[in-house]
Amino acid sequence: MSDLDKQPGRLRPAPENFLSEEQIREVAAGRRSFLRRSLMVAGAALAAPLAARAAEGDPAILELPEWSTTLGQPVAARPYGMPSKFESQLLRRESPGLARVGGASVSFCPLQGLFGIITPSGLHFERHHQGWHEVDPARHRLMINGSDPAFLKKPKVYTMDDLMRLPPVSRIHFIECGANTGLEWGNVAVPTVQYTHGMLSCSEFTGVPLKTLLEDCGVDYKKARYVLAEGADGSSMTRTIPMEMVENGEVFVAYGMNGEMLRPENGYPLRLVVPGVQGVSWVKWLRRIEVGDKPYATKDEAVHYIDLMPDGTHRQYTSIQEAKSVITSPSGGQTLLNQGFYNVSGVAWSGRGKIKQVDVSFDGGINWQTARIEGPVQNKALTRFNIGWKWDGKPAILQSRAIDETGYVQPTYGQLRKVRGTKSIYHNNAIQSWKVVESGEITNVQVL
Ligand SMILES: Nc1nc2c(c(=O)[nH]1)N[C@H]1C(S)=C(S)[C@@H](COP(=O)(O)O)O[C@H]1N2
Ligand SMILES: [Mo]
Questions:
Q1: What's the CA-to-centroid distance between 34 and ligand 1, angstroms?
Q2: Of 8, 155, 166, 268, which is most buried by a Cβ count within 10 Å?
Q3: pTM of structure
């Protein structure tokens, strides 16, 4: 449990950049509009507007298109299937200005265009510290050793063939970069859900529990309390994982993703899956596991991936991604074309287990309704929620709030900043607000 479990009063006087409770009431009552233009408009035109059309007299239903009157393409015209050309705008995108070198950057997942909980493998977000490679599986190895011979009796080197002979597990889990939503700590920074929340994906991963491998190598759990995972790329990516997460069987070395081998960008042929933990610990192109008796404090856990607290201290090893949710449609950059019914849809997730409930507000957090969860709800996986909404053409502020099985409630920006301040990068799980104005335009705003 973190400090955030103790949740103080919901609202407090708003600094200039945010909406106060009074302002929200005014907006909700249609008396005022607080359209917040985002600093970056690059993504604003990307999202498709929502449209509805009456069938009556529609030429599209009266005319026979060429696909009804000509011969179609043969089977296996594309031996590996691709999305329709009409979906060519649904792409991973790099946020302009984020990193000067593409090999040390992020491509964001287009959450606004996805359904259900599984991220198509070609749209899974990417985060590389030193670029990605096409690693030859025949030359790839996984070594398991101890920092002291007493911790692990039989150090071993596994080939991919060795690993794929062992009994596997297949589990659906989300992966979220600890820096997801990190640009929004102090103020609204990016326009669309792709950029606010797109360092998030969810897949079915297949592989071998790390526990199986460590026991095969004769680990001594009494002495070896930590694991160090190391990648084969040039970034020297190394992360410490507490042994409890391995002993309970949740951590596994994965070669499969959504029914096929991992994609090169996501760690082919082998990556670590650390359910509920921030993405950086899911070491890609995994080549070595060392067991030891203390945390390693490597560069990626001593200098990076630490939380700057308001008192100037740094918090280390806050690796679990707390409960969070976001409405993906309608969302920032989209436009509601006319009044009437809309299905409001989004995803919720928690690094501590299953999602228990998701509430949705249409008036900036004054009134809440419980959304419909599309089950079955999986452990440490994205959970889809839906709720019907009739837009009356007036300004509205859409929000979602996740509650996980531990009872933890996703905080407001006011609550989160009270504990964490505004100078952090990592672990921003605040409630996201999308503001709808009379024109139907939707923008990213922050509500305390
Ligand atoms: N070897 C290696 N592993 C890595 C990284 C990396 O750069 N090199 N990036 C990490 C970070 S910060 C994240 S968020 C996830 C991203 O995984 P993805 O690219 O499959 O989305 O991989 C992690 N594992
Ligand atoms: Mo990350």
A1: 38
A2: 268
A3: 0.88
